[in-house]
Each structure stands twice: as C-alpha cells, then as structure tokens.
Design brief:
single chain, about 150 residues, mainly beta, glutathione-dependent formaldehyde- activating enzyme (gfa), about 5% helix, about 35% strand, binds zinc ion
C-alpha cells in the first residue's frame, strides 16, 4: 500500500488552471486528502471521481479571479465551485464547511503527486467502471468525523 501523503506543515505547492490565467499557492498542513465519487463531482468534472485537498481559506493565495457556480450539496449546505472562465479548469470549492475549510482540486496542482488520498467517499455514487486503491478505507457517503 502506498502511504497517504498530506501537505506537511510549512510545505507550499503551486497550481493553476489549464490556460494559466489563474494561479495559486497553497500552504500546508492539509486537513485531509480524499477521493470523492459523488454525483455532483462527477457532473462538475466529467470524470468518475475527483481528488480533493482540504485546507483553511487563509492557506490559499489565489492570483486571478475564478468564475463561480453555487448549488446545494447532499447535506443541504451551499457549495460554490471556483473555475477558470476561460478554459473551464476547476480550482477549488468553498461552502458552509466547518473551520472555514476550502477544498482544492488536487488535479489542478502543478505536481499532483505531492499528495495522495487517505480515503474514498460517496462510494454509493461511484461509476461501476471506476477503480480505487483496494487498501484505502471507503465510505458510502461522508466520512464520519473522528
Ligand atoms: Zn484557465
Ligand atoms: Zn463530491
């Protein structure tokens, strides 16, 4: 099993959209790294699942102004997705999350390999052809807070 990799305390990482109009820097430590298979992630990314990194808003330095789209998530709270208006590249998600957490799209990092997921959530929505690391803990919906 490959060890889950978080963004460490003091570690920084660069990322941005496909066309480069929007760039950002995030600073560790990350709160979590997960793969989410929910229907909304599928529709928003056009893929089977998305890999997300939770950080506090103050740990995100965004350069450029993303477009946003807001809807309501599974638990009823508002969810706002931030993406480049030029190329459509997804950057991060914000919403009614505890601790002022924002959720970065790991695939928008210049080097997505600096993190790896610790668990898979919303397995109930997973596409039958999607494949996951068999060693990762999996949850039908949200992961219960420990
Ligand atoms: Zn762009
Ligand atoms: Zn999701």
């Amino acid at each position: 099993m490959s060890e889950p990799k978080a963004l460490a305390e003091g570690q920084t990482a660069e990322g941005g959209c496909l066309c480069g109009a929007i760039r950002y820097t995030i600073q560790g430590p990350s709160a979590f790294v997960k793969q989410c298979c929910c229907k909304d992630c599928q529709k928003a990314t056009g893929t089977g699942h998305t890999t997300i990194i939770g950080i506090h808003r103050r740990q995100l330095d965004m350069r450029g102004t993303p477009k946003t789209y807001t809807n309501h998530g599974d638990t009823g709270g508002s969810v706002t997705r931030h993406f480049c208006g030029e190329c459509g590249g997804r950057l991060y998600t914000s919403g009614d999350l505890p601790g002022d957490i924002v959720i970065m799209q790991a695939g928008s990092l210049d080097d997505p390999g600096i993190v790896s997921p610790e668990s898979v959530i919303y397995m109930k929505d997973a596409a039958p052809w999607d494949r996951f690391d068999p060693d990762l803990p999996k949850f039908e919906a949200l992961q219960p807070r420990s």
